[in-house]
Specification:
By secondary structure, the chain is α/β, with parallel strands linked by helices. It has a single domain, classed as Nucleoside phosphorylase domain (Rossmann fold), CATH 3.40.50.1580. The protein has a five-stranded mixed barrel with strand order 5-8-7-6-9. Helix 1 packs across helix 3 and helix 4 crosses helix 7. It binds hypoxanthine.
Amino acid sequence: MVGVDVEAAADFLRDRLPFTPSVQVILGSGLSHLVTQVSDATTVSFEEVPGFPPSGVEGHSGAYVAGYLDGTPVLLQAGRYHAYEGHPMEVVVAPVRVAVALGVEVLIVTNAAGGIDGKLGPGDLMLIEDQINLTFHSPLAGPVYGEGHRFPDMSAPYDPVLQRCALEVAADLGIELTRGTYAAVLGPSYETAAEVRMLARLGAHAVGMSTVPEVTVARAAGLRCLGFSMVTNKGTGLSPDPIGHEEVIEVGRVAGARLGLLLGGVLGRLSATGYSEETE
Ligand code: HPA
């Protein structure tokens, strides 16, 4: 593992966190402000964790925040490492491997994404039902890590039971949530209009620069995953407006509140069922 001793990082966090987390939530671009919604927060910045490099993208503060969202204990990962920053895949997925070492059972991923499906526009929430890896890298290339499989099954990267739970919570809260496929590209340039047309033909509904490596590693380790895309803009060519990182962050800030409500509801249901496979 390049530069990150996962066990040392997990030992360090175990000492600092007030509880053993069952769920880790990765907060994507513009969504880190959701950490303000947890009570009794314990914050550990990435810089403090042995082996973790600083994370430098605006909108990603790079910290773990353990606390209670609507009364449910949760470990928030505010910020992530991206391959486009030049981080090797081992670093990109290190926080997930640490989650596995800590005993996390459910990984909830969120991201900012461009809408490829014409119906998805700024502020819309998409439940990720499947993913397409267009980064042309795999975090699983190389020696098999830990107890993982050489060829993990990817027929259901996003847990169907958790998806149903999220759809029910969204309906209860009156939050519109459409289902779709998330395509991950390397970035950091946004897509050309031709690439957006290609992504639509490939069956993607939203596009972003994260999530797929983390979910791939989580599945290889047997974690159950749930994913949400916060659509911050229409894909290039689908709207006359150019795409800027500032707008991406701003939409996340405004519309992220709905995602916070949804996460609170989902976590409440999960903890009520003891994080079992039978989330009813
Ligand atoms: N493309 C890729 N990543 C993104 C986008 C986009 O349009 N919007 C937010 N993240």
